[in-house]
Amino acid sequence: MHCASKDVVDTVARHPERDHHRPAEEPTPPRSTIGGFRARLDDPPDSQGTRPRSSIDRLPSPRRGVALRPGSSPEPFIFPFINCWRSDRRLKTFGERKGYPEALVGLVRVSTDKQKTLRQHDALDAICLKVFEEKVSGKLAVDERPGLTAALDYLRDGDMLTVQEVDRLGRNLLDGLIVLNGDAMTRTPRTFGRIGAAAVAVTACALATAQPAAADPLSDTNGFYVNTASNPATWVAAHPTGARAAAIRTQIAEQPIAAWFGTGSTGAQVANYVGKAAGHGRLPVLVAYNIPGRDACGGESGGGAGSVAAYRTWISTFAAALADRPAVVVIEPDALGDFACMSDTQIQDRLGMLTYATRMLKAKAPGTWAYLDAGNAGWTDAATMAGRLRGAGIADVRGFAVNVSNYYSTSASTTYANGVDAALGGGSHVVVDTSRNGNGKLAGEWCNPAGRKLGTRPQEGGGADMLLWIKTPGNSDGRCGTAPGVPAGTFSPDQATRLIDGT
User: Fold this and answer.
1) Using N-to-C axis directions, what is the helix angle for 114-125 and 344-364, rounded to 10°?
2) Are 67 and 28 in contact (CB under 8 A)?
3) Rounded CA separation 497/495 (Å)
4) Cis peptide leading into residue 60 (ω within 30°)
5) pTM of this prediction?
6) How many CA atoms lie within 13 A of 325 on its CB side?
7) Confidence (pLDDT) at 23
């Protein structure tokens, strides 16, 4: 990848205590200097690898950079070059890191311009294991920069400290390089012992270069994962006898149903769930349902994260917990259908959060097929929904989902999906929720309507990528319809039996 026109500089530090070379089989990255600057250390290191002083030299441009190769000098040095090498090795979490670099650790400069701060987070959150923040400061000494110090202390050997723009570390590019190399005021360099064998990088094009293409979770697994802790399964375990229990067990509890994660759910819970599925070689289906102000029109399932910032933290953690394990994720049911019940500011915030969610899933969950929710056949016209999907980052995920928690027939749902796909320009991928659409939609009713029935069981194909049970059959839509006393999301054996019998 060529990024020579960007003012992007990497500074790579190597320590003699650790072999920090790229593996011999990896190609040498493209590289060049920017503006002719080279940061170098003049004097040989002492026994602790400490340099007495440092300097910044201006060299004639253009100059080619120096890459670390097996057999090169063991001396530590710092050399800026363009951060455009394409890694064929995925950046892994601490528990499974093997390649070079082992992990990225980010540093964001917090300014009074919130958009500038968010842009830095957008670039770094997607690729970094952890991101630290530091308030804007005129101080260049590392020891007077608590955010930078905390980031450096967090690094392990082989990690890479990453900033979006090196001049964010100082008043300009030169100041930024001085901060990375040492104390500009006393010209006393930072001890390499703090950073170990880490590297310091600048990443304007890192989002485009750090992640390999996503895998195919269907090919990597053998059928869908059955959640033995689903609401129906939990009810059956507590009420094991009787004809009703037997029917709910076989017709619902033993079928693969999506697991919903929202307010109060943790990254550990998500990781545990997909880990169990991976242990059985099965494909889990998850729903991310924590957008602030969710169910703005229906109101029965209101809630979600308390703020935009809280949601960004939550969805980033959710995506990281999936890691590279196979999974299917439906992103925020109803989120793009609720616009009629939201202000313009709320709509723009929501689109921003959904875009962030798609980026996180693309960057942190390469084994996942993610689908933005696109409402249902009777809610928003196809062209309007296509525009909303574009604004929510559809280009960064597998496709979109339709009929989630609704009752439209599979035929009506795929017809609607085809219209959305055409408005998007074609080539989209779709999943359809068939959990309760066996008898189709009852006109004008969306909340626990009578006479509905279980639909086609989860399968690959069927006119879409997959037909899935995204809504849990038997879980109430709210205190309405045939379950006026059952809150949304609560399992009702009466509702489950109605869906089995079609009554």
Assistant:
1) 30
2) yes
3) 5
4) no
5) 0.63
6) 27
7) 37
Residue that the structure tokens 């659409």 belong to = 437
The answer to whether 170 and 125 have CB atoms below 8 angstroms apart is no
Name residue, tokens 């999506």.
Answer: 258
- pLDDT in the model for residue 177: 56
Q: Quick check: 124 and 162 in contact, CB under 8 A? A: yes
Residues with Cβ < 8 Å from 96, sequence gap 6 or more? 323
Residue 258 has pLDDT above 80, yes or no: yes
CB 27 within 8 A of CB 1: no
d(CA 478, CA 490) in angstroms, rounded, equals 8
pLDDT band at 210 (very low <50, low <70, confident <90, very high): very low
Helix, strand or coil, per DSSP, at residue 383: helix
Q: What is the mean pLDDT of residues 139-146?
A: 68
Q: Which of 160-174, 395-409, 419-433 has the lowest mean pLDDT?
A: 160-174
- Residue 334 annotated as catalytic: yes
| Adjacent-strand bridge partners of 283 | 224
Q: What pLDDT band is residue 154 in, cutting at 50, 70 and 90?
A: confident
203 in helix, strand or coil? coil
| Secondary-structure breakdown of the chain: helix, strand, coil percentages, each rounded to the nearest 5 | 30, 15, 55
Q: How far apart are CA 494 and CA 480, in angstroms?
A: 14
Among 334, 373, 421, 465, the active-site one is 334
CA gap 487, 483 in Å, rounded? 8
Check residue 497 and give its pLDDT: 97
Average confidence (pLDDT) over 377-385: 97
Distance, CA of 157 to CA of 14 (rounded, Å): 10
Q: What's the CA angle centered on 146, arms 142 and 152, to 5 degrees?
A: 65
421 tagged catalytic? no
* Separation between Cα atoms, residue 202 and residue 442, nearest integer Å: 56
Among left, alpha and beta (phi > 0; psi -120 to 50; other), residue 463 is left
Q: Give the per-residue SS3 of 290-331.
A: CCCCCCCCCCCCCCCCCCHHHHHHHHHHHHHHHCCCCEEEEE
Task: Look over the chain and give the mean of its residue pLDDT values, rounded to a whole number.
Answer: 75
User: Of 167, 295, 338, 349, which is the active-site residue?
Assistant: 295
Q: What does the pLDDT average to over 469-482?
A: 96
Can you give the pLDDT at residue 10? 33
Confidence of residue 145 (pLDDT cuts 50, 70, 90): confident
Three-state secondary structure call for residue 224: strand
pLDDT of residue 204: 35
